[in-house]
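$ ./design --mode recover --in tokens.txt
reading tokens...
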């Protein structure tokens, strides 16, 4: 990628920058697709519960920790990406991610599985996750929300490919060898793409004029996130959105098998349908956040979540359509939050500090993951069913509507 000389001479993957930048989107999506395999954990849960004699709560521990460390290291990486660069960050993240999967394939105890898959794998996901978003925000200053949404769309679409792939590999090789195969493949793919993920020169703009509709109308930003009411509103709303969404994703297959009585193969295949909604909601919600006030978009998401919770609270054996509709909504809304939050961060706070700012905002994801996955596992162990989990999910969504209405608004604090 050439960045020397006049702006018109800048190229991306051998093409003029205005055209070549679009090639970065599918490359970023592929990286995100590798990272998003964590959303296919429900495919591994039942085989590992049987193989390692785990309870429902224990089988959620690796998933909980992968999300927790993923969220924590997005914040850490946000401060290092401007210093060491996007390429180096991607290489480090790819190696750590692949190592976590590979090491997990050799362990036979839930504690070591949590350490390898959860801690090491989650760290790799977190280190790498922010790179495609930062690349998108810099190369697409005219379409920030939409471009970021597409870049991370691969994360949500990942189960569309990895869920049936993992299910096939598990049936062929069992669960732990499948982790090894995926780890080797992901490491190779991410390292190959890392070379292309470079930022444009400072101040670069596309040739076409940036319209008022795609720019931030108010250039006054809070001097500090922690002095801004809008930061706390965004953070709390993001916690709620991810708490409910990740809880639902983590129990997608078990709910299908235990409540609806779908056979395991159909339950696994349904994850691919959910992934479509999770993936395509990201560019959609990014586009909406570019054009409408974020609190309106958040209220729509929470309202959909409440509808899904009501559907599942009354779901019974054999109601396959009800299950599919409700969980399509859950996955759709979680994907929406994973585009709304970065797009709102770009809109409300100084985009020149986007890596650091979104790293801090993204800690909400870790909090939501920790609370949500723990609560659903405990509810299953205490009540013998996941049905009781949907009432608190709806309650959180109602609180989210109130917080979004009051606090998820642009301010000039500081």
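writing sequence...
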């Amino acid at each position: 990628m050439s960045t020397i000389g006049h702006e018109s001479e800048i190229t991306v993957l051998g093409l003029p920058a205005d055209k070549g930048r679009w090639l970065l989107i599918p490359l970023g999506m592929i990286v995100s697709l590798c990272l998003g395999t964590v959303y296919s954990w429900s495919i591994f849960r039942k085989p590992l519960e049987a193989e390692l004699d785990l309870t429902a709560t224990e089988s959620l521990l690796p998933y909980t920790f992968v999300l927790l460390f993923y969220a924590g290291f997005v914040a850490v990486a946000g401060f290092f990406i401007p210093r060491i660069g996007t390429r180096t960050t991607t290489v480090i993240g790819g190696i750590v991610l692949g190592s976590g999967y590979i090491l997990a394939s050799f362990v036979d105890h839930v504690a070591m599985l949590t350490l390898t898959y959860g801690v090491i794998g989650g760290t790799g996901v977190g280190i790498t996750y922010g790179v495609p978003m930062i690349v998108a925000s810099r190369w697409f200053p005219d379409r920030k929300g939409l471009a970021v949404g597409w870049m991370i769309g691969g994360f949500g679409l990942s189960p569309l490919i990895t869920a049936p792939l993992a299910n096939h590999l598990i049936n062929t090789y069992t669960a732990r060898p499948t982790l090894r195969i995926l780890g080797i493949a992901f490491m190779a793919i991410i390292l190959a793409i890392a070379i292309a993920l470079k930022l444009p020169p400072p101040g670069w703009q596309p040739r076409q004029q940036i319209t008022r509709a795609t720019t931030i109308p108010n250039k006054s930003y809070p001097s500090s996130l922690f002095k801004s009411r809008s930061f706390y509103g965004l953070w709390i709303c993001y916690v709620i959105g991810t708490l409910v969404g990740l809880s639902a994703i983590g129990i997608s297959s078990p709910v299908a098998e235990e409540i609806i009585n779908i056979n395991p193969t159909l339950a696994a295949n349904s994850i691919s349908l959910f992934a479509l909604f999770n993936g395509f909601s990201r560019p959609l919600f990014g586009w909406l956040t570019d054009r409408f006030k974020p609190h309106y978009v958040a209220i729509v998401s929470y309202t959909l979540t409440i509808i899904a919770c009501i559907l599942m609270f009354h779901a019974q054996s054999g109601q396959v359509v009800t299950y599919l509709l409700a969980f399509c909504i859950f996955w759709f809304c979680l994907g929406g939050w994973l585009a709304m939050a970065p797009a709102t961060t770009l809109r409300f706070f100084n985009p020149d500090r986007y890596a650091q700012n979104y790293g801090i905002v993204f800690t909400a994801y870790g909090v939501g993951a920790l609370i949500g996955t723990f609560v659903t596992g405990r509810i299953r162990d205490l009540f013998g069913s996941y049905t009781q989990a949907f009432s608190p999910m709806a309650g959180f969504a109602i609180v989210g509507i109130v917080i979004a209405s009051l606090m998820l608004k642009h301010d000039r604090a500081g």
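exit 0
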